[in-house]
Every structure is written in C-alpha cells, then in structure tokens.
Amino acid sequence: MIADAAVADAAVDGTIWVLLPIHDRRQVTERFVESLAAQIDHDYRLILIDDGSTDGSADAVCSVLPETTVIRGRGNWWWGGGLQQGRLWLLRHKWGRGDLVLLANANTVFEPDFLAEGRLALAHHPRALLQAQL
Q1: Longest Cα–Cα distance in the chain
Q2: What pTM, to 2 d.p., does this model score?
Q3: 128: number of CA atoms within 13 Å, CB side?
Q4: What percent of the chain has pLDDT over 90?
Q5: CA angle, 48 then 82 then 66, to 5°
Q6: How many CA atoms lie within 13 A of 119 on its CB side?
Q7: In a 10 Å sphere around its CB, with 0-12 CB exposed, 13-18 middle and 19+ buried, how is residue 77 labelled?
Q8: 113: which of 38, 45, 121, 127 is 20 to 30 A away, CA to CA?
Q9: Cα(86)–Cα(15) distance, rounded to whole angstroms?
Q10: 8 A C-beta contact, residue 29 and residue 104
Q11: Pairing of strands 16-22, 100-103
C-alpha cells in the first residue's frame, strides 16, 4: 500500500510535457494555447514542434506562453515526424519520476480542468495510456 501511495504522489507531482506539432495554422494554434494557458494545473511545459510555419505561429504561441520550447523543422516532418522530434527532445532532457506526456493536436480546445483531471486519472496507473474523448 505504501508503494502505491508513493507512485500516486509522484504522478500527481510531475511535469506534464505537452507535445504540439504544427504547420501554418496560427488561428487554430492560438485557440489551443489559450485553452492551455487557462488550465488550473500550471505544472506543464509546452514543446511546440513548428514544422516550417511561415504564418508567425510560433511567435504567437510564445507571446502567450513565453516559456515554450520551440523545435523548428523545414516542413517535411508532418504530424508523426513532429512527434518523433518531440520524443527525441524529451529523451535528451532530464525527466522527473512522475512526469507525463500529452500528445496534442492544435485543433482541440478543452476545459480548464483538463490537465488536472488527466493527472488524477493517471495517478494510480503510472504506466497507462489515457485517451481523451468527447
């Protein structure tokens, strides 16, 4: 029982790494970032994988969330390749025991408790994959 509680505490305390691949979808991306900025759970870090955007998407994101990490591509990664670049970035950086990863599409918006609810759902299942649904 103590081990289970320690795992749950670690999952509740970790950073949520948000991987967001984009390409020239500024307005859609801005809506996503507004949803992210409105979260009641502020222990997240956005990794924006900008695959060659020419519409100022990355600058718009950084104006709302200045701590955003931006990985820049040349337009040939697409969504899956962008996620791979985010994965490679994550592998090069130090992880905390309870850290979580959110794979996101820029065309989604969510309620202010989305991250907090996801964190709670995963607290007792640290090796689980959680899928958000309508």
Answers
A1: 53
A2: 0.89
A3: 15
A4: 78
A5: 5
A6: 23
A7: buried
A8: 127
A9: 15
A10: no
A11: parallel
